[in-house]
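Backbone-to-sequence.
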């Protein structure tokens, strides 16, 4: 375990990985912050490349044991340097870099896929992370985000997923038309969720293979794809409430599907 200065190449790369989605793509890495996410990555077989620990932390022994069966290197950095790099106001004492978990569409939309969650134009990192978490918790076989959605390796997305990013396959950066085509090819029912839906979400049969589609936080699903849906579902709400947060809506419908499939 060695100490690193702010001018070290690894530190410069770490800073860019946290701040810049282009760097995350070019380097093929992303970052996790905190012991829980690091532990979750290792438990699921996603080994870190580098682990950075604050100089004042007394967890070096625990971290060394945790990464002992990986090829990860452990580095000490000064507390103020780590704070300047971290994505949170009150940073965790640990930041680790890992290889990206990129999945191809054909490996997620398969004949065995009976439950998919799809986000079209999801812009808020926290929502994307929460959707991944709900999907994993409800037993989905995969999550797909369209090209105009947030980077799933954004630190807030990673944090909001609470480790679920390591538990369910996630595809990102796919054109909406390609998503719809791939799902239809596998004869998976398309269930669009919209305030303009014609069927209450609890009335839909989730026993056959299905994909739940949700749209942008402010605009919802584009009406031009309504005709592509096998069902257009709605979550009924009391008068005066216009809509639910997209991650909340995803969770509600996902767990109804889980209930029916139990």
């Amino acid at each position: 375990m060695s100490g690193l200065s702010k001018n070290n190449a690894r530190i410069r790369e770490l800073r860019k990985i946290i701040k810049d989605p282009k760097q995350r793509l070019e380097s093929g890495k992303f970052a996790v912050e905190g012991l829980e996410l690091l532990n979750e990555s290792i438990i699921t077989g996603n080994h870190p490349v580098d682990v950075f620990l604050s100089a004042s932390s007394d967890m070096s022994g625990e971290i060394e044991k945790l990464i002992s069966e990986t090829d990860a290197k452990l580095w000490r950095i000064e507390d103020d340097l780590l704070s300047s790099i971290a994505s949170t106001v009150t940073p965790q004492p640990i930041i680790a870099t890992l290889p990206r978990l990129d999945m191809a569409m054909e490996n997620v939309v398969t004949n065995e896929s009976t439950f998919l969650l799809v986000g079209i134009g999801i812009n808020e990192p926290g929502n994307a992370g929460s959707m991944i978490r709900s999907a994993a918790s409800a037993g989905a076989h995969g999550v797909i985000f369209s090209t105009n959605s947030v980077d799933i390796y954004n630190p807030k997305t990673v944090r909001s997923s609470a480790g679920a990013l390591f538990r369910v396959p996630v595809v990102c950066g796919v054109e909406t038309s390609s998503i719809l085509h791939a799902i239809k090819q596998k004869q998976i029912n398309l269930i669009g969720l919209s305030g303009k839906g014609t069927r209450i979400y609890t009335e839909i049969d989730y026993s056959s293979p299905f994909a739940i589609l949700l749209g942008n936080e402010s605009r919802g699903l584009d009406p031009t794809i309504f005709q592509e849906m096998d069902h257009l579902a709605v979550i009924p709400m009391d008068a005066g409430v216009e809509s639910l947060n997209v991650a909340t809506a995803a969770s509600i419908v996902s767990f109804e599907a889980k209930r029916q499939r139990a």
